[in-house]
Amino acid sequence: MLLTPTRPTSKSERRQALETPHQREHEASVERAMSKGIQPKGLDALIGWFREACHEEAPTTIHKNELWRDWGHDGDGGSKLGTMAWSEPFRRFIEGVDRPSAFDDDGRYRLPLRAAIGRWARTPKYAISAQYVYQLALVDGDWRRLADRLAYPHEFMEMYLETALHRLWREYSDVRMRT
Fold this sequence. Notes:
By secondary structure, this protein is mainly α. The protein has helices spanning about 10-20, 25-35, 45-55, 90-95, 110-120, 125-140, 145-150, 155-175; strands at about 65-70, 85.
């Protein structure tokens, strides 16, 4: 499959295209390898996989096309005028209904990445790694920003996260295979 290059429209997209001319091809290559179950090599590829896995588990819509008027009934919320109702995936996300260890109807983890990180967090040996990987998700995979936030040298954070993400890949693969 050939990728057809698209012309960047905004100034930031044009700047990004200059800085990383083969980024789209690289991301497509990483995606093909991930679909075959091949572990990404290198920090950039691992972060690409990690970001994709995070985005797969995040709800994509916040509201649905109806009003929420249950204000005052059973403490559910809403308003007298009507508030946009939450979509079911977002409601489950916000209310914490989908625990990391929750299963779907087929007996698989509903949120495999969170299940893998949750298993790490309960293991004393990997609890700090789970914490850093979670923080990496909060900065959308920008490990340099995470290093600056934690006041760690970039070299240290790069090596640490590469090792942690390799281990997380193995744990994630194990969690996805479990039924």
